[in-house]
Task: inverse folding
């Protein structure tokens, strides 16, 4: 700043003030620059003081409700959602942030609330954040978990974008043509699809036939687990019998929404993808890997995507993290196998969570704001 303004090479005449060699033109440059800096400071101050608004757009047709976090000028207050307490402005007055929308897709049996801290971080950066509830695969209805819902999920993300843009509170606050999308686990499968990947149930069957013991929870979910005893052989036989009937579909599935311009996939289910379709994603693709993931063995899922996609940006690779380690606030009341698969490994440091969230925020800033 000082060097920019002190560019005069001449000497001022007595009785006159030396502004610069260009006189009024330099003064106007100084004035415009100062005004720009002042406006920038005001904008930064406004965003820093904004609250996180929260609302829910109602279900429509076969689509579930959409939870929306957004910059708000209203005051925060504690709000209970199930076992979670959120500090938000419920139905707060929306205010303009950075003009961009990011859609988050939850994992199987998920809800918006364990993604609350990531949503807060995105709103603090100026984003509006929408979380659709995926039909048949959410916290109160897991009747259709698996390929049946994976086929629908990408369209449900598109419908969530439509719902936000139809709402008068948000339609003027976000740009429809530059949307970000993040997904975790089954939501990561959705993310890879929206990045341009194609998948087939038959590829998952082929994977499970070849690697059932090594990636057992991917193939059977929460129904049972291997315990290293006499019954393991019977469990594997029954699993293959069921899988060969459920995954006999050889069709390819994909979904394209040109409004989505950047995608992040965290610990995605990916063994059923044609990896060639992810070698050059249609949009920038960021990946997050958890080295101790006991639900989706990394080498068959996110590791395979990392190997196939040279252009992908590995935002976070945490060797001590588990499948649910970046969920924040953490799910409560888990028991049995779900607790084993989603709880943090003993040596995971949760101080890494906000760092990983920050990298997701920076990825979307870099690819959506220019």
Result:
């Amino acid at each position: 700043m000082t060097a920019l303004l002190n560019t005069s090479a001449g000497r001022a005449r007595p009785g006159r003030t030396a502004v610069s060699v260009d006189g009024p033109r330099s003064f106007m440059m100084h004035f415009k620059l100062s005004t720009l800096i002042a406006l920038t400071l005001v904008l930064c101050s406004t965003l820093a003081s904004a609250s996180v608004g929260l609302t829910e757009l109602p279900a429509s047709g076969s689509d579930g409700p959409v939870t929306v976090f957004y910059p708000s000028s209203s005051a925060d207050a504690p709000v209970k959602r199930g076992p979670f307490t959120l500090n938000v402005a419920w139905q707060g007055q929306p205010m303009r942030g950075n003009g961009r929308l990011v859609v988050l897709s939850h994992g199987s049996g998920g809800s918006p609330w364990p993604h609350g801290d990531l949503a807060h971080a995105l709103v603090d950066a100026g984003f509006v954040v929408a979380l659709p509830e995926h039909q048949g695969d959410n916290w109160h209805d897991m009747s259709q978990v698996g390929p049946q819902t994976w086929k629908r999920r990408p369209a449900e993300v598109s419908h969530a974008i439509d719902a936000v843009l139809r709402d008068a509170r948000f339609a003027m606050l976000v740009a429809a043509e530059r949307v970000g999308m993040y997904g975790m686990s089954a939501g990561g499968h959705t993310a890879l699809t929206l990045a341009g990947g194609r998948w087939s149930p038959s590829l998952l069957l082929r994977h499970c036939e070849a690697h059932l013991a090594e990636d057992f929870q991917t193939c059977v979910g929460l129904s049972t687990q291997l315990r290293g005893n006499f019954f393991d052989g019977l469990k594997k036989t029954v699993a293959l019998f069921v899988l060969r009937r459920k995954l006999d579909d050889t069709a390819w599935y994909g979904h394209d929404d040109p409004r989505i311009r950047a995608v992040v996939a965290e610990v995605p289910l990916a063994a059923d993808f044609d990896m060639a379709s992810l070698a050059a994603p249609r949009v920038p693709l960021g990946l997050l890997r958890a080295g101790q993931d006991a639900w989706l063995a990394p080498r068959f899922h996110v590791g395979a995507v990392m190997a196939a996609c040279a252009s992908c940006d590995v935002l976070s690779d945490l060797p001590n993290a588990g499948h649910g380690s970046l969920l924040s606030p953490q799910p409560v009341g888990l028991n049995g196998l779900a607790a084993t698969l989603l709880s943090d490994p003993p040596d995971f440091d949760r101080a890494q969570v906000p760092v990983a969230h920050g990298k997701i925020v920076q990825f979307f800033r870099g690819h959506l704001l220019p």
The two ends are 24 Å apart (CA to CA). The CA atoms of residues 77 and 284 lie 36 Å apart.
